[in-house]
Structures are given as structure tokens and as C-alpha cells.
Amino acid sequence: MLRSAACFGLSLLPAVAFAQQSPVLQPPWLADPPTSIEVAASRFADCVSREIRLLPASLETHSAAARIVGTCQAALAAVEREADRIIERSNLPEERKALARLDLRERLGEAGERIAIRVDRRRASMPATRR
Fold first, then answer.
1. What is the DSSP letter of 68?
2. What string of pLDDT tens digits covers the 131 residues of the chain?
3. Between 79 and which of 24, 40, 55, 96 could a Cys-Cys bridge form, CB atoms 3.0 to 4.6 Å apart?
4. Which residues does 49 contact at the CB level (< 8 Å), separation at least 6?
5. pLDDT (0 to 100) of residue 77
6. For residue 56, how many other CB atoms are within 10 A of its CB?
7. Which residues contact 119 (CB under 8 A, 6 or more apart)?
8. Between the CA atoms of 117, 123, 125 and 129, what dihedral angle is there, to the nearest 10 degrees?
9. H or E element: which one contains 65?
10. Dihedral sign of CA atoms 89, 90, 91, 94 in order
11. What is the DSSP code string of 11-56?
12. Cβ–Cβ under 8 Å, residues 86 and 16
């Protein structure tokens, strides 16, 4: 489930990573269940992956990315809510929380561009007859 989240959804996590305590790295078989932000990021990444596969070849890259962001907006909003919750509950000083929120908004604003790059890569990897 988290495999596709690594592509995009979890790239949003650095915005809040310093707001959480650093966990001790564990082998996968001992790992804790996914956190709420990991689940939200995974759902967003899965939505993006699904929508990229369903895109018509005739749709221009940036239009396709905008369409995907719109379709996956609820999942992206869940990532934002979870990240905001983590930042708010952290023990960081208010000025650091403000910087974390700013970083988060910046990364969320890059969603369309990052998705456009994925669309281009997907199309480039497909045979010319399927594009």
C-alpha cells in the first residue's frame, strides 16, 4: 500500500517530519502500523496512480495534472489535515510551527507540477501506439 505513496504522497512529509519525534528505525516485520498521515499520503498517491492510468492520451500534460489534482482533491485535503494536526500537536515553538505550515503549503502547491512530471514519465515509458 505504501509503495506508491513513496512516489508522491510521502514527499510531503518533510514539512512535518521535524514536528514529530524521530522514531527508531525497525525492520519491516517489526514496524508499527502506518500512521494517519502515511495512510492519507498513500491514499492520495494511489488516487494519482489510478488516475494517471486512466488518462486519455489526447489530454495535454498540464491539463491532465490539473484534472488529477481535482479528482484526488479529497485525498490531498486529508494529507493536509493530518499534516496540520501533527504540526499543531508538536512541541515546537510557534515560529517553527509557522515555518512548517509554510513549507507544507509550498509542497502541496507543487502537487500539480509533480503530477505533470509523472504523467510525462508514464507516457514516455509507453509504446507509441498506446500514447
1. H
2. 444 444 455 455 555 544 444 455 556 666 678 899 999 999 999 999 999 999 998 999 999 999 999 999 999 999 999 999 999 999 999 999 999 999 999 999 999 999 999 999 999 998 765 55
3. 40
4. 4, 7
5. 97
6. 7
7. 52, 55, 61, 64, 65, 68
8. -170
9. helix 61-71
10. negative
11. GGTHHHHTTSPPPPP--GGGPPPPPHHHHHHHHHHHHHHHHHHH--
12. yes
* Nearest Cα to Cα of residue 64 among 114, 124, 103: 114
Query: If you search the block for the grid coordinates 479529497, which residue do you land on?
Result: 74
DSSP 78-121: HHHHHHHHHHHHS---HHHHHHHHHHHHHHHHTHHHHHHHHHHH
Other beta carbons within 10 Å of 4: 19
* ∠ Cα 114 117 99 (to 5°): 20
Query: What confidence score (pLDDT) does residue 24 get?
Result: 52
